[in-house]
Amino acid sequence: MSVSDLFKPLTLLHGPAMRNRFMLAPLTNQQSELDGTASVYDHFWMEQLSQSGYALIQTCATTVEAGGIAFARQLGIHSDDHLPGLTRMATTIRSGGGLSAVQLHHAGHRANPLLGGIPAPASSDTLPGIPAISTEVVERIRDSFIAAAKRAQLAGFDGVAVHGAFGWILSEFMSPFLNDRKDKYGGSLENRARLTLEVIEGIRRECGPDFQIGWRLSIERYGLRLEELREVTAYIFDRELIDYLDLALWDSAQVVREGPFRGKTMLSLFTELPRKGVRLGTAGKIMSAKRAGELLDEGCDFVLIARAGILQRDFPLQVKADPTYDSPRLPVPAEYLRERGLSERFIDHMRGWQTFVLHGSR
């Protein structure tokens, strides 16, 4: 395939088609108001993105419960008070011709008490002195994901992306290392995957056949087992429970280092699964037009742009204008980001990434 194939439309099982193969990855930016409502910075960010050529734009990780917060100034969708700001965001994205999704997030055991978070571990052994949440609390959190999806639909979003990566609550429950429960949400793989499946199935039931559902999956750290994640993913593909899988790799070219899949790329372990009508994309150091095009050859239906989209908001338009486009080298001075519209709050967040903002730049 050539870079030009990135600009071919892509149908999804539910709702409208993607106009091309570029999806904006969900980017934590810590620029919302303290109560989770969308700020002027959120709106300006969305205004920029809406004109940047993406087929689908995901919000940052957005709290489905106040107690599930992980970051200061995290966007919220756990209250109807958040609806006006979310509605404006969805309307802005649509005005530019793209599809929209809210990434639904609960931090689980990583919820931050300093921000009002209430740690919700699957196991009593995860955090000293904090017992595992009860079955009733698990079901309440499940229902909060579903209610948040309904809220996203009311706000005018085309869909939601369920955050099942990085040790947050759905990933946590999937992990035999972090989940030693004895109820229906622990033990066997079927039980550990139950929370994720009930969330996805509940969203489909409540939001209907035209609403899009994505699922973000990571396969590194937090005691996750690659073989198990492939099995769950194969089940979800076979039943066509989602519209797209967002495979969150740190590096899209990453190779498995040990075990029965040693030497294969992590991406290939999922692209080789029969996926019926479900679409698959990946993130992970996609910094150039060339790499984005290569990923279609490697079996992806679309690509998720993260760091490259922070450096250059209209990455898809840059690629369209120049099939040899490559992102600026990291790190960059803060002023570079400032000149391209990043808020001071967003820039401060990016300073937490070791190799993104040039040390000492103001």
From TrEMBL:
Query: Is Flavoprotein set as a keyword in this record?
Result: yes
Q: Which residues form the NADH:flavin oxidoreductase/NADH oxidase N-terminal domain?
A: 5-321
* UniProt entry tagged with the keyword Transport: no
Q: Which residues form a coiled coil?
A: none
Pfam families membership? Oxidored_FMN
Do you know which InterPro entries this protein is assigned to? Aldolase_TIM, NADH_flavin_oxidoreductase, OxRdtase_FMN_N
Q: Which UniProt keywords apply?
A: Flavoprotein, Oxidoreductase
State the SUPFAM superfamilies in the record. Answer: FMN-linked oxidoreductases
Its name, as the record gives it, is NADH:flavin oxidoreductase
